[in-house]
């Protein structure tokens, strides 16, 4: 379970405070309080107050708050910005340990604002690091990456090695949460190297913990792929890393860290089927979390123990601990744990044959999963990483020797804003080209040299890694595309009687639905981009963001004008004026609907709209040219889209779809599906609900296709007003 990677984030709060590590020595605290009573200098007093706040934040929250707020008050009076910022940072840490992440973030942001006024780069980097940690725990990975990259860049500029290690750890954790294990390990080993140079056993243990988590996740992947030997090897490496971390933490008597180690070792033992020892480790971790009133740690332990009981079929105890975990994680707003608790409860109730409860928790799981992986997160994470890598590679260009690195650098410097955001997909195409070249070289050598067998074996291993990387990249691109595109649920919130029938030819698609609502009108479209698969998906992203900007940003609401603006936007984005042979673009059916007045305005490019009314179907044809490309305008043809206005009656329906539906070959005679069959299905099932009609279209399409391959992506939308 890769989620335990976020345990390590807790360690970094104390690392970035730039003070001595936590001590529970009461005599030291008493000594500080005595000094506070006798010191008359305000500057010394405010420093003592901040030190006492830090001493108490893991011991007594009330005392920590008291000294922290007193420090802030005195710092403001004497205008000591450094100590004032530290006071807000300390209060943020107290809220963090209490599990009140919203209040922690508020104080960290205040501290950052003051530190920017001071101009101390090291302190600014520390604040960015803290803020990134809170965003990561709260599930806002885009903001987390943004702040960690800002922190890392400052630390690299000022040569702060310990700070670099901390930022690498945080960035590695986010990569791990995205299943990007190679980059995660690269960051964790970079952090470990720096940690060993400093000799700090606590942070060395943190790095070993992180590395162990990556190995464990890789073990899970290998097991899922059926490679038990590889899986056992990875789990063995994970356990070795965890045990090193536990030993180092015991040497420092670092209780919190020991709790995290017990949890991680328990996870491995659970996998190995040693349930008694696993429970023993989970219980030891829970006791430590209870000692510190660490709500987050308690919630994690409950979740683990509940999962263990589910594994040994003690479902009653499993539900007790899972509900305890859910209650705590809801209270502190930790979305990732809530997600896992919902999923576990759904699974347990299903095994208890309590299907109603299982279904309800699955619905809750699905809803919160959608909220975590959203459009803003996916888009912003790519943008932040591209920005950081671009700046870093500018400094290292003389060290780059591989063509793919140079090509990546040149591409990043030339691409406009939209192409930057989707660099991942462009990279997939590049890697595919590289693979073709490698395969050609290998095959050529095999024809002439038998001794190349060893080299071929090595290359095959590398190709396997690259194929895996490509598959992971395409699957991630699919997740991004699915996340930003509207669903049938979104459409039915406006029109309960409606459906979206979507069937991609490949993992990612060039067809997509698009919807948007303003105060008066609802806009809907089905869009068919040039190509399918990765090229089509790239075009779909461009089309999606351009439509959002045209309707939502520029407030253009006439369908024909929207298409005209979209046409110009595609030409500009793809620089088609510089290449008159470019034909990339899209076919689209777009309409605006005034639900109250039942008025529809429609414009299309190579696509028609079907209007079902009074028992008949009327086909409203779009213009016979696409959006984008110069194949028509370069020959002197005017690109002007026609606007059609329809007045619908209650119960009327409209349908629009891509040519992937009607061009599909199949049936008894191997013919195209065609428009007439679409109209016939609608007419024959006029009394059916839209949900039922969607199922009928899906069944008919699959039946028609038979043993034939799907030729193109398919998107269809139906709306009853």
Short overview:
The chain is α+β, with helices and mostly antiparallel strands and 721 residues long. Helices cover 67% and strands 9% of the residues.
Key attributes of the depicted protein:
single chain; 721 residues; alpha+beta; Serine Threonine Protein Phosphatase 5, Tetratricopeptide repeat; Phosphatase 2c, domain 1; 5-stranded antiparallel beta sheet; 29 helices; 12 strands
How does the SSE layout of this entry go?
Elements lengths: L8 H7 L10 H13 L3 H15 L4 H18 L2 H18 L2 H18 L2 H17 L3 H18 L2 H17 L3 H18 L2 H24 L3 H24 L3 H17 L3 H17 L3 H17 L3 H18 L2 H17 L3 H18 L2 H22 L6 H12 L2 H5 L1 H26 L4 H32 L3 H7 L3 E6 L7 E7 L4 E8 L3 H21 L5 H15 L12 E9 L4 E7 L3 E5 L2 E5 L23 E4 L5 E5 L1 H4 L2 E2 L4 E2 L1 H11 L5 H16 L8 E7 L1
Antiparallel strand pairs: 1-12, 2-3, 3-4, 4-5, 5-8, 6-7, 6-9, 9-12, 10-11
Task: Explain how this protein is built.
- This protein is 67% helix and 9% strand.
- The protein has 721 residues and is α+β, with helices and mostly antiparallel strands.
- The strands form three sheets. A five-stranded antiparallel beta sheet has the order 1-12-9-6-7, with helices on both faces. A five-stranded antiparallel beta sheet has the order 2-3-4-5-8, sandwiched between helices. Strands 10-11 form a two-stranded antiparallel ribbon.
- α13 packs antiparallel against α14 and α25 packs across α26.
- It starts with 8 loop residues before the first helix and ends with a strand.
């Amino acid at each position: 379970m890769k989620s335990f990677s976020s345990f390590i984030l807790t360690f970094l709060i104390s690392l970035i405070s730039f003070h001595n590590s936590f001590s529970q020595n009461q005599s030291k605290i008493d000594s500080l309080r005595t000094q506070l009573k006798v010191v008359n200098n305000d500057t010394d007093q405010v420093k003592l107050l901040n030190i006492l706040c830090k001493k108490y934040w893991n011991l007594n929250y009330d005392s920590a708050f008291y000294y922290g707020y007193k420090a802030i008050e005195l710092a403001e009076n004497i205008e000591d910005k450094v100590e004032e910022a530290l006071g807000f940072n300390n209060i943020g840490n107290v809220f963090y340990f209490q599990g009140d992440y919203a209040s922690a973030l508020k104080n960290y942001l205040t501290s950052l604002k003051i530190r920017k006024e001071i101009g101390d780069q090291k302190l600014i980097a520390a604040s960015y690091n803290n803020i990134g940690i809170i965003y990561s725990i709260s599930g806002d990975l885009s903001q987390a990456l943004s702040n960690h990259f800002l922190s890392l860049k400052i630390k690299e500029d000022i040569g702060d090695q310990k700070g670099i290690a901390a930022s690498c750890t945080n960035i590695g954790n986010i990569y791990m949460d995205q299943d990007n294990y190679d980059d995660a390990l690269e960051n964790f080993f970079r952090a470990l190297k720096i940690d060993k140079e400093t000799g700090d056993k606590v942070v060395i243990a943190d790095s070993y913990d992180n590395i162990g988590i990556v190995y464990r996740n890789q073990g899970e992947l290998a097991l899922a792929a059926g490679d038990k030997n590889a899986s056992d090897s990875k789990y063995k490496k994970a356990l070795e890393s965890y045990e090193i971390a536990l030993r180092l933490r015991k040497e420092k008597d670092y209780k919190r860290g020991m709790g995290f180690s017990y949890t991680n070792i328990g996870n491995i033992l659970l996998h190995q089927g040693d349930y008694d020892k696993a429970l023993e480790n989970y219980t030891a971790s829970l006791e430590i979390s209870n000692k510190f009133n660490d709500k987050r740690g308690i919630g994690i332990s409950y979740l683990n123990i509940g999962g263990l009981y589910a594994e040994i079929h003690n479902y009653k105890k499993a539900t007790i601990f899972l509900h305890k975990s859910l209650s705590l994680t809801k209270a502190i707003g930790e979305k990732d744990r809530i997600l896992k608790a919902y999923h576990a409860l759904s699974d347990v109730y299903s095994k208890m044959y309590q299907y109603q409860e299982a279904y309800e928790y699955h619905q809750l799981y699905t809803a919160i999963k959608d909220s975590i992986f959203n459009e803003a997160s996916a888009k912003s994470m790519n943008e932040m990483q591209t920005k950081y890598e671009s700046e870093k590679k500018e400094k290292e260009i003389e060290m780059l020797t591989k063509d793919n690195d140079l090509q990546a650098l040149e591409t990043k410097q030339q691409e406009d804003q939209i192409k930057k955001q989707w660099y991942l997909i462009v990279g997939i195409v590049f890697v595919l080209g590289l693979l073709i070249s490698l395969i050609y070289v290998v095959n050529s050598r095999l024809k002439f040299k038998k001794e190349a067998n060893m080299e071929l074996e090595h290359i095959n291993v590398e190709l396997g890694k690259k194929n895996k990387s490509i598959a992971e990249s395409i699957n991630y691109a699919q997740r991004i595309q699915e996340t930003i595109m509207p669903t049938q649920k979104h459409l039915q919130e406006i029109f309960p009687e409606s459906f979206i029938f979507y069937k991609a030819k490949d993992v990612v698609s060039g067809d997509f639905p698009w919807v948007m609502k303003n105060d008066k009108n609802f806009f809907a479209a089905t869009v068919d981009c040039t190509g399918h698969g990765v090229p089509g998906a790239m075009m779909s992203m461009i089309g999606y963001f351009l439509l959002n900007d045209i309707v939502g940003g520029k407030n253009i609401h006439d369908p024909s004008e929207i298409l005209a603006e979209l046409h110009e936007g595609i030409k500009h984005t793809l620089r088609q004026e510089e290449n008159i042979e470019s034909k990339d673009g899209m076919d689209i059916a777009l309409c605006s609907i005034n639900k109250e007045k039942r008025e529809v305005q429609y414009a299309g490019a190579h696509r028609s709209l079907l209007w079902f009314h009074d028992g008949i179907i009327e086909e409203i044809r779009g213009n016979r040219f696409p959006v984008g490309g110069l194949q028509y305008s370069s020959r002197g043809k005017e690109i002007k889209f026609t606007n059609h206005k329809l007045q619908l009656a209650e119960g009327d329906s409209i349908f629009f779809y891509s040519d992937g539906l009607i061009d599909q070959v199949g049936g008894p005679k191997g013919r195209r599906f065609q428009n007439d069959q679409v109209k016939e299905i609608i007419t024959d099932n006029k009394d059916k609900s839209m949900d039922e009609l969607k199922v009928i279209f899906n069944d008919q399409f699959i039946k028609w296709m038979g043993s034939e391959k799907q030729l193109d992506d398919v998107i269809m939308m139906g709306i009853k007003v």
